[in-house]
Amino acid sequence: MRCARILPVLLGLAVLVSGAAPASAQEVVGTATIEGRAVELLSDRTWRYAVEDGCRDLGEGVSFCDAPEEWSRTQPPNADIAASYRIGARHYGQLVVEPVGTEDGLTPELVREAVIENSAASIDGTAEAVETIETKPAEIDGRAAETIVYGLAFDDMEVVYANTVLLLPQRTVQVVTYGIASGYTDAHRALHAEFVAHTKVSN
């Protein structure tokens, strides 16, 4: 149960990478307000939070701001993922905001372990099947965080993830990018840094 709540999204990432096609563009057919937050109603009968002042509110005080137009917003594969993007032909980005944090006992060590265990579970393997490429200090919106870079294979397709995790007292923010590649390329590293830079966290 240690890793049951934190980072369950990695199973969703596995589903996305292993065959789900990016969502096609939906037309906005209306707007509404849900619990004081503006939303857009889409032609496929789904909805998403509206962009205000260049920022998309992801809940729990987290926003994704000024995303470049070439980053195609896609439908998240499950409710744990607050926003999902396709970036070019081989890279993807996702943001996860969970209402669990250090006051609930989360530590960087537990998060690292959960990332590897959940990644291994997504391919029906053991932790040895996941290669930890690097772990290093990072920042999200000026707050100390940690980036874990790891790789695994879905059948014969190699995928590398960069997951920057910000632990706060009552919430956890994950900024995840992943690419279809055999290593952590300079292009992926630059893209991840840019994706993190667009993430804003309020008090």
Short description:
This protein is an alpha+beta fold. It has helices at residues 9-17, 108-122, 186-197, and strands at residues 28-34, 37-42, 47-49, 51-52, 55-59, 62-65, 71-74, 83-87, 91-98, 131-140, 143-154, 157-167, 172-180, 199-201. The protein has a single domain, classed as Mog1/PsbP, alpha/beta/alpha sandwich (Protein Transport Mog1p, Chain A).
List keywords for this structure.
single chain, 203 residues, alpha+beta, Protein Transport Mog1p, Chain A, seven-stranded antiparallel sheet, four-stranded antiparallel sheet, 3 helices, 44% strand, globular, disordered N terminus
Structure notes:
This protein has 203 residues and is of the alpha+beta class. It has one domain (9-20, 68-201): Mog1/PsbP, alpha/beta/alpha sandwich (Protein Transport Mog1p, Chain A, 3-Layer(aba) Sandwich), CATH 3.40.1000.10. The chain is built from 3 helices and 14 strands. The protein has a 7-stranded antiparallel β-sheet with strand order 7-8-9-13-12-11-10, sandwiched between helices. α1 (9-17) packs parallel to α2. The protein is globular and about 50 Å long.
Strand arrangement within the widest β-sheet reads 7-8-9-13-12-11-10
- Discrete helix count: 3
The first-level CATH class name? Alpha Beta
Structural category is alpha+beta
Question: Which value, in Å, is the CA radius of gyration?
Answer: 16 Å
Give the second-level CATH assignment, the architecture. 3-Layer(aba) Sandwich
